[in-house]
Amino acid sequence: MAIDSLLANVQIELKETEPCTRKMEAKYTADIVDAAFKDAAKEAGKYAQIPGFRKGKAPVDMIMKKYADYILDDVTKVLQQNAFRKLTENNELDIVSFGAMNAEEKPAMGKEYAFSLDVEVAPVFDMPEYKGLKVEVEEGETFEQHYAAQLDYLKNLYAEFLSVEDPAVKGDMMKVSYDSDFALAEDASASLKRAVKNDEGWFYLSEPEQIPGMLAALIGKKKGEEVKFEAEFPADWREAELQGKKVNYTVKINEVQRRVPVETEEKLAEKLGMENVEKMQEFLKEKAENELKQAKQMKIKEKVADIVVNAVADFDLPKGFLSMSTQREFSRIAEQLVKNEEDVEKFKSEKDKHLEDAKAEATKKVKKFFVLRKIADAEKITVTDEEVDMQIRQMSAYLGYKEKDIRKMLDNNGGYSEIQSNILMDKVVDFVASQAQA
What we know:
Blueprint: H1 3-7, E1 11-18, E2 21-28, H2 30-45, H3 60-66, H4 68-88, E3 95-102, E4 113-121, H5 143-157, E5 160-163, E6 173-180, H6 190-196, E7 198-204, H7 214-218, E8 226-232, E9 246-260, H8 265-272, H9 277-310, H10 319-337, H11 341-349, H12 351-379, H13 385-399, H14 403-413, H15 415-435
Antiparallel strand pairs: 1-2, 2-4, 3-4, 5-9, 6-7, 6-9, 8-9
């Protein structure tokens, strides 16, 4: 009998150990194990180099002895993978994650071979109503408000710095000349020279300061005025010669410029390269309408997702699946909060709270995943390889990494499945939103 036919006789028993968890117990009789060893030895014999025998002609017993470790690994892999394949072919079993294989003994000639595998299955719950949902969304900006805000944004975006006679305020530009009592060495660097003396230079009255104390000294001053102040340079200042030093400055204000928004629509149209004001208005109105439609559609999508998920009573979630999701959420929290060494210590001291927050967020997301996944199954909604590739290309462009590097990171952290899940969830929500009555 062919080995494949024998392997098909593996005995598999499934036991429910806890909600959403099944233990697969697989067993092979001794004759199947023996056949697997002989088949592996036969395959190894095709390439075996044994003195006194032509390739492929050495006795099976000799091959099994010489290549025992290799054959044992091959047999173990064949027996486990065969049982695994038969398990996954069970259409009634919706497996979502796998544990580790467990075997008390390795396969051996003349003996039965048994091992177990924990698997997690999708939770069981009643399908929620998801077609024709009635959705009410709060009204946001009116068209007039959105259009006006868009116009103001562009006028500020294309603002110009113009000279003013008023006292300087934070955010202004100031042309100054200054000198100080700092004694420069003959071989002083150009950057150090500029830091203590400048015949003419522009200062932006905003943080971070180019010279400590200059911001406070110059705000409120006008063109033509002279200002004296003392700068206290911190111990870690970028110019080593100034670190920890106090330097007296005399500053002459030559000009004050302020950022002034574009005053007229005619001027804005010109800045935008539009033919005339009418063309600009037509373009901006169409843009405003599209943005408002998109904003409303986004609200509808958020609303229908909440309605559908909340319509299902809480149910048991696969513990391993939830644990992996919790770890991802915990990592996201850490990325958001930890920026330096001080943050690390604070994060560690609040670790338990962050874990609770991560588990709470993961629980909501995992429930949503299974509810939407069930709708995807009912509506035959799937994710194509092309859609995953497109998402990876977008990630590459956004993050500034090469696509091959993104794929390598995804391979290392199991990110492909998360991308597929996110795309699937979006497609399901789009479908439900398209059926809603808003």
